[in-house]
Amino acid sequence: MMKNIMKGPVLLVIVFSTAILVSCGGGNNKAPATIEKYEPNWKSLAQHETPEWFEDAVLGIYFHWGVYSVPAFGCWGGRNMYMPDGGTSEAWGHIEDQYENTYDYVSRVYGTPGLEFAYKDFIPMFKAENWDPDEWAALFKSAGADFAGPVAIHHDGFAMWDSEHHEYNSGDMGPQRDVVGEMLAAVRKQDMKTFASFHYYTNWFFFNPGRMLSPYKTDVNNPKYSGLYGPVRDVKDPWQNEAISEKFQKAWYNNVIEVIDKYSPDQLWFEIGFSDPECIGENYVTASLAHYFNTAVKQGKEVVVTRKADDLPLSCSVLDIEAGELNKAQKDVWQTDIALGTNHSWAYSPDAISRPVNMIIDEIVERKSKNGVSLLSVAPLADGTLPPSQVDALKELGKWMAINKEALYASRPAPFMKGGTDKWKSGTIRFTQKDQFLYAIEIGNEILDVEDADRYTASVPPVAPYTIPGVKPLEDSEILMLGSDELLPWHVERGDLVIEKLPSPLPCEFAWSFKIRIAS
Question: What is the C-alpha to C-alpha distance for residues 351 and 93, in angstroms, rounded to an integer?
Fold first, then answer.
C-alpha cells in the first residue's frame, strides 16, 4: 500500500496560460489511428493508448461480493478461518469483540474449520435473494459514477459469472445468477462504462493454511474441491508461493478470456501477480491483453487496463494504488481503489459503515486535481442489499456531484510552470482546469488516511472576503460558485484574487467550487 499524502497548507503562486494540460494516459506511446491488430508482446501492446473517456472520468464504483459475504468476515476470511493462531485483516467488530480470531469465530458459530465445516459450505448460504442489479446501477449513476461493475473473481476462487469451464461459479452455485453479466447489462442501461476486476492469481496460495492444518486432513486437501481451493500440494508456509503450475496459469487465462468474450467490460483491473517470480507467465498475460485490445477494436470501443504496483508496463496500462495516493499532480492519469466503508471494509461486515461523506468527496477532489480517478468499493450483504449507511452516503455524494461534477469531469490539473512545482493546490484549495476555465475547489479540511476516518472533521466553509492566492482572472471575467447563478464581485490584491461576496446560503455543504474564466 502506498501512502504519500501531502499534509498541511502550501502557498502556491499560480501562473496561467491558454495552454491546457493534456494527460497522456497509459504512457507516451500513442496508438496510430489505423492500428487493427495487437500482437502478444510488449512492443505491440505499447501502441495501445488510454481512452479519453477514462482520462475524463472522475468516479467508478465496484463491489466485493461473494461467498465471504455470508460469514461477513472480510474477503480474506476464507484463508483466515483455517489459521488457529489468527491471520490478516481480521479487525471486524463482531469477531474481535467476541472471539479470539476468525478461526475461533467459525469454530463456535459454524463448526471446526476443515473438520466440521469448510469454506465451500458457505456457498449454499450465498443466495442473493434480494439482489436487484438495476437498482444498484441506478444508485451508482445517481452518485456520479462514470463506470461501475463487480469483482469478477476474488482470491477465494469463486467466479461471479455463469462460467462454462470454471466449476465454482455463481451461475451454477449459490445465487445461481450471472452476477457479472446482469450487473454489466444494468450498468450499460445507465449509460456508464463497465468494469470487472480479477484477483484470482492469489488463489494459488490463498488456502495454504488449510493445506497445513493438522492433525486431520481438511477439505482444502481433497482433490475433489481443487476447482475452488486450487491444486492440492504440500506446503510448508502459509505464504509459500512456489512456481505456479501450467494448468493453473491456463485456468487464469481462460477466466480472463471468457469474461472478455461474454461481457466486453470497458475496464479490466488486475490486482497483483504478474511481477512476482514464477507467477502467471508472460505468454498468458500478453496473450490476454492482446485479445482484449483486439476484441475492442473489432467492437469499435476503447478499453483500459489498470493494475497495481509494477505488474504491467505503463505503456499499455494505468497505475492503480490501493487505498493510497500520489503526492503531486501527474501528466498521466492514474487511479486509486479505496473502500467506501471504514476500517478498509472492502467486503461486508456489520461494521462496514460509510466513512464521512465529506472525507470521500475531499479525496475525490484531491485525486482529480492530481489527474487521479477514484474507484470506490461498496460492501453488499449476502442477500444482495447494500448497507444503509453506504446507500445514504452514495445519495449524499450524488447531491454534491449534481452541483460540482462540472469542476472535475474532463478536467485536468492546473498547468505546470516550467521549472517550478505543479499547481494543484494552495492550502485547502484544489485546482482543476477545463477549456478556458479554472476551478478552485475549497475543501475546507485536511486530508487524512482512511484509518483516521473517525477523526475527520466538518468542512470549514469559505467566507467573504475570500482569497485565492496567485490567481489572476481576465479583466472582464465572471466568477461564480457552482450551484449558484449569482455573479460574485471580485478584485485582485497584491497578485491574489479576492472574492468580495459569496452566495447565501452556500449551494452545498462541502467542497465548494469556484468557476473562473482565465482565458479568452
Answer: 6
E-only strand ranges, 84-180: 147-153
Residue 173 CB contacts under 8 Å (≥ 6 apart), including other chains: 123, 124, 158
Helix ranges (DSSP H) in 97-156 = 102-109, 133-142
- CA 12/CA 508 separation, integer angstroms: 26
SS3 call for 117: strand
Question: 116 and 106 in contact (C-beta within 8 Å)?
Answer: no
* Bridge pairing between strands 479-481 and 512-517: antiparallel
Distance between CA atoms of residues 109 and 74, nearest Å: 16
Q: What is the pTM of this model?
A: 0.92
Angle between the 282-299 and 246-263 helix axes, to the nearest 10 degrees? 10
Contact 90, 82 (CB under 8 A): no
**Whole-number Å distance between alpha carbons of 463 and 455:** 24
Is residue 520 very low, low, confident or very high in pLDDT (cuts 50, 70, 90)?
confident
Q: Note whether 494 and 480 are within 8 A (CB).
A: no
Cell readout for 325 is 495516493
C-alpha 136/C-alpha 305 separation (Å) is 24
Find the angle CA(263)-CA(264)-CA(270) to the nearest 5 degrees: 100
Rounded CA separation 295/459 (Å): 46
195: nearest Cα among 391, 408, 375: 375
Name beta bridge partners: 516. Answer: 438, 479
- Taking a C-beta distance cutoff of 8 angstroms, is the pair 439, 513 a contact? yes
Helix (H, G, I), strand (E, B) or coil at 446: coil
Query: Judging by DSSP bridges, how do beta strands 193-198 and 147-153 pair with one another?
Result: parallel
pLDDT score of 1 more than 80: no
Tens digit of each residue's pLDDT (9 = 90 or more) over 186-221: 999 999 999 999 999 999 999 999 999 865 678 999
Strands of 140-292, DSSP E: 147-153, 193-198, 267-270
Query: For residues 195 and 146, what is the distance between their CA atoms, to the nearest angstrom?
Result: 10
Q: Please answer whether residues 517 and 473 qualify as being in contact, where contact means their C-beta atoms are separated by less than 8 angstroms.
A: yes
Rg of the chain taking only CA atoms, in angstroms:
24
Residue 5 has pLDDT above 80, yes or no: no
